[in-house]
Amino acid sequence: xxxxxxxxxxxxxxxxxxxxxxxxxxxxxxxxxxxxxxxxxxxxxxxxxxxxxxxxxxxxxxxxxxxxxxxxxxxxxxxxxxxxxxxxxxxxxxxxxxxxxxxxxxxxxxxxxxxxxxxxxxxxxxxxxxxxxxxxxxxxxxxxxxxxxxxxxxxxxxxxxxxxxxxxxxxxxxxxxxxxxxxxxxxxxxxxxxxxxxxxxxxx
Length: 204
Prior knowledge:
It is built from nine helices and no strands.
């Protein structure tokens, strides 16, 4: 079966609409603190962080537009999509940020990484749901958005060591900024296919 959301039975369309509404709410929560990060004087001095944050803003806005259209096609409403669960998971990030004295920028990236990781697994769930119910249109959207997010997650992981060390140095800490490469390699090794494949079976 290869259908669009408009061709599906009522129960299946409701399921798809619920998932789309959840994803729209999540994307809106991801987008909310990004504007503050982009306008923050603390962030402005860190060009690589600003590059990533600007990329997140662009991707998130395009996702919101696409999800609103897809949700409408599924018979749902984008008027009130926000779910309290996303508020609890992500809503406190901006307020907490204001209380952080050191490494404010890298902690912003950490929070962005966390939100994007949640979006990534959520889009995977949306894809599985849509594919299983024969909604190829929504499955294609989920895959496209997943393809947008995963490179940003990798980019944050590669960039954040240098940002952490730069911030510590700017705060007067005696750190070696060249240690960023060591941390990048350690992270890469930890996520390598060989370690994941061999380690998972031994621990679980």
